[in-house]
Design brief:
The protein is an alpha/beta fold. The protein folds into two domains: 197 residues, NAD(P)-binding Rossmann-like Domain (Rossmann fold, 3-Layer(aba) Sandwich); 38 residues, no CATH class. Helix content is 49%, strand content 13%. Strands 3-2-1-4-5-6-7 form a seven-stranded parallel beta sheet, with helices on both faces. α2 links the parallel β2 and β3. The protein is globular.
């Protein structure tokens, strides 16, 4: 049984579709119930919608408890929920910094902490965190986002080392720019700041990636499935779009 966070659109929705196509029951969580219901309606198998804002201190526990009461323990957690922000370092506020840590690091930590004990007891479990290429390299103007993603990759590596031999694997998928609503927002921000058109801005960020294009949500979902399907893969950070040392 699978739990996907940030499942209302983009990567999370694609992951839910991929897991459902493999025959898994999929629980979906995000803040917008209507969007979750729409994703659930498009799945090929059984689904469960559990709306929540995972930045809340008790939200991870409440979501997992609801899933356990309906279906039993979580076998596969895909921690995908997150957000981004952009500003020069000197203009990054404490609020910006804390919001990135809350959404991109603390929320995944709480989800992982909550599901791992049952996985260890069962002798089987899969945790996949959708991180970012910025968890592996630094980029300008996104210090808070980059720091939170570096932190979540550290969580993945530490948890993988601790759980090695238990039957529980922990991995990260680290895409560059993906063709999602989050990237659309980035494109709009670049266009507003530079005077470029949206098309020119999208082309500019595509060229930044070693592969020369945006990653698709289905490519991310396939990488998530690869982590879930391979019991020998743990502690990995899989770069999509190039690892920052290419090109």
């Amino acid at each position: 049984m699978c739990l996907v966070t940030g499942a209302s659109q983009g990567i999370g929705a694609a992951v839910a579709r991929r897991l459902s196509a493999q025959g898994h029951r999929v629980a979906l969580t995000a803040r917008r119930p209507d969007a979750l219901e729409q994703v659930a309606a498009g799945l090929s198998g059984e689904s469960l919608v559990v709306p929540a804002d995972l930045s809340g201190a008790s939200a991870a526990d409440e979501v997992v408890t609801a899933v356990e009461q309906a279906w039993g323990p979580v076998d596969l957690l895909v921690a995908n929920a997150g957000a981004s922000t952009s500003s020069p370092l000197a203009r990054t506020t404490d609020e910006d910094w804390q919001r990135m840590l809350d959404l991109n690091l603390t929320a995944p930590f709480r989800c992982v902490r909550r599901v791992v004990p049952a996985m260890v007891d069962a002798g089987f479990g899969r945790v996949v965190v959708v991180a970012s290429i910025t968890s592996m390299v630094g980029q300008p103007y996104i210090a808070a986002y980059t720091a939170s993603k570096h932190g979540v990759l550290g969580l993945v590596r530490s948890a993988a080392a601790e759980l090695a031999g238990s039957g529980v694997t922990v991995n990260a998928v680290c895409p560059g720019y993906v063709d999602t609503p989050m990237t659309d927002t980035t494109v709009e921000r670049i266009a507003a700041k530079t005077g470029r058109t949206a098309e020119q801005s999208r082309e500019a960020i595509s060229r930044q990636q070693p592969i020369g294009r945006l990653v698709t949500v289905d490519e991310v979902a396939e990488a998530v499935w690869a982590c879930a399907a391979n019991g020998a893969l743990t502690g990995a950070a899989l770069p999509l779009g190039g690892d920052g040392s290419l090109g």
